[in-house]
Specification:
The chain is α/β, with parallel strands linked by helices. The protein contains 22 helices and 14 strands. The model has no long low-confidence stretch (mean pLDDT 95).
């Protein structure tokens, strides 16, 4: 058993501080400049609290206090906490889309951890792209790391009705367009739908990805379900700070936790919660950082027999606060016990089976038994065909069942601006059987693959009472969205994928049970269109946007940068 001096000598951070050379003098003197005496940090694990807070990061408004909670936990267990701010990605405020910057945040996290004298990290995030970005960066840096999820906000309220973030906006927006909701009503909803700090309290992308972080083993069991403003959240943050210090001494790293079995568990969980379609892109990217070559086919193979048992909006009735009171994610995972690989490890060093030993369901309508699912329609489906040779996705459980097998004429918009300008035109030639198609909204075409995929129903149909129809794009959609929306068509239209060849009036056939999506146009006609196609101009000529354009992958590959997917270790920085 090594003594304390031997343990301390093993710390990565001490390479900066323990030499008698001139460089170490500079390192120590600069720490003293900040008011720290050497005995405060030397020989102790230095823990970076990676904080994605900013004055515009709405979901993370409570993070200044939570960072203090984390720091308290680190110090209680003999570590030295340092808060390190990184880029914030507020989902609704970042334009053109936060997805454009997910890889930038992942790079910042990786290089921050690599370049500074830290031994471990607490990753603070939760808003949609922050969770995958933090995990991607931490996996590539591969220092001991634990994730602290932001937690869901409280339920929304409007005149005694429960409001769910995102989902109810889409629903009531159509009612407003139909003249059934007044401007005064709409203003009241604005004030009542987001009542506290925290992420969307529906099963949107944020709640989906924090649940996935938990089932992957990267945060404390039960952490992802705790509401942001609940006192349990503060205690969880402090416990995470305590635990990461032990992880440093144990040398427990992300690559010791993550395996193909971890990702299979995440896929199964995502199906059972009817998680966001965005999870497919993010999971593929996270897995490949860990050396697991996850594919779209694996989602179908692993989750084909999993029904939706989380009764949460937009596929069900309840919200995340109810989910927490019903037992949270551990209770749901306990229902799935027979389908999961219970041998997978977590940040506590436990197996998943050990972590679920005491999990119980307290409300069987919120977390359903397998014998009484919310829906037998799958939470996610991967479609292929001549319109999407590399695949596309949809959420069958959130669509009207009649549209899962459908054939209709295309109504094509060449860009989102084109759609906004024309979707409500009185002379738009469209019927409830039409298939709305949006082109040039993918990773490069958007740019950044914005959440434009829940295409609006044309106003003339809204006035007739139509609330769902088949819509196809190479965009993403918010996890809080719903409807028969087919997304992530790959390859995207901007790079010449088949979606770029669709013209208004072409017949499109969707067959979700048979997992197919086809453009019913003769091959010789498609060949002529392909020969005439010209790529649209790019969006960027300089800066990060130029790097993004040159290196971003397609949706089926996780939209990560090609040069970031290598698992070859980067050499440690030369310090002295």
């Amino acid at each position: 058993m090594p003594n304390q001096d031997q343990r301390s000598a093993s710390l990565r951070s001490q390479r900066w501080f323990d030499s008698e050379g001139m460089r170490a003098f500079g390192h120590r003197s600069r720490m003293m400049q900040m008011g720290f005496s050497p005995d405060e940090y030397r020989g102790k694990p230095i823990i970076a609290i990676i904080n994605t807070w900013s004055g515009l990061a709405h979901c993370h408004a409570h993070f200044p206090e939570r960072a203090k909670d984390v720091a308290r936990g680190v110090a209680m267990n003999g570590g030295f906490p340092v808060e390190v701010p990184v880029m914030a990605l507020p989902e609704t405020l970042t334009k053109p889309t936060s997805m454009l910057y997910r890889n930038l945040l992942a790079m910042e996290v990786e290089e921050t951890l690599r370049s500074l004298p830290v031994d471990g990290a607490v990753l603070m995030g939760g808003c949609d792209k922050t969770t995958p970005a933090l995990l991607m960066g931490a996996i590539s840096a591969n220092l001991p790391a634990i994730f602290v999820p932001a937690g869901p906000m409280l339920r929304g309220n409007w005149r005694g009705r429960v409001l769910g973030s995102g989902s109810d906006i889409w629903k009531y927006w159509d009612e407003k367009r139909a003249g059934k909701i007044s401007e005064s009503d709409w203003t009241e909803m604005e004030a009542g739908i987001n009542r506290s700090a925290g992420v969307c309290m529906t099963m949107g992308t944020a709640a989906t990805m924090t649940a996935i972080a938990e089932v992957l083993g990267m945060c404390l069991p039960g952490a992802s379900s705790i509401p942001a403003v609940d006192s349990s959240h503060s205690r969880m943050a402090a416990s995470s700070g305590r635990r990461v210090v032990d992880m440093v001494w144990e040398a427990l790293r992300p690559t010791d936790i993550l395996s193909s079995g971890s990702f299979d568990n995440a896929i199964i969980t995502n199906a059972a919660i009817a998680g966001s379609t965005n999870a497919i892109i993010h999971l593929i990217a996270i897995a490949r950082r860990a050396g697991v070559q996850l594919t779209l086919e694996r989602f179908e193979q692993v989750s084909g027999n999993i029904h939706v048992i989380a009764n949460l909006r937009p596929s069900g009735d309840y919200l995340m606060e109810d989910f927490y009171y019903a037992g949270g994610l551990p209770a749901l995972l306990a229902q799935l016990r027979d389908a999961l690989d219970l041998s997978q490890r977590n940040v506590c060093g436990q197996t998943l089976g050990e972590a679920l030993a005491d999990a119980k369901v307290w409300n069987a309508d919120v977390i359903r038994p397998l014998t009484n699912p919310v829906s037998t329609a799958q939470g996610l489906a991967v479609l292929r065909g001549n319109l999407a040779p590399n695949g596309c996705v949809m959420k069958p459980s959130a669509a009207e069942p009649r549209l899962l097998r459908h054939k209709g004429p295309a109504v094509v918009f060449s860009s989102y601006a084109d759609l906004v300008a024309g979707i409500d035109a009185e002379d738009l030639d469209v019927t409830p059987d039409s298939v709305i198609v949006l082109q040039n909204a993918g990773p490069q075409g958007g740019p950044g693959m914005p959440e434009w995929g829940m295409l609006p129903i044309p106003k003339k149909l809204v006035l007739l009472g139509v609330r769902d129809m088949v819509r196809i794009s190479d965009a993403r959609m918010s996890g809080t969205s719903y409807g028969a929306c087919i997304l992530h068509v790959s390859p995207e239209s901007h790079v010449g994928g088949p979606l770029s060849l669709v013209r208004t009036g072409d017949m499109i056939e969707v067959d979700v049970p048979n997992r197919s999506l086809n453009l019913l146009v003769a091959e010789d006609e498609l060949a002529a269109r392909r020969a005439a196609w010209r790529q649209p101009d790019g969006h960027f000529s300089r800066g990060y946007g130029s790097i993004y354009t040159q290196h971003v992958g397609q949706a089926d590959a996780g939209c990560d940068f090609d040069f970031l997917q290598s698992t070859t270790p980067t050499p440690e920085p030369y310090v002295l």
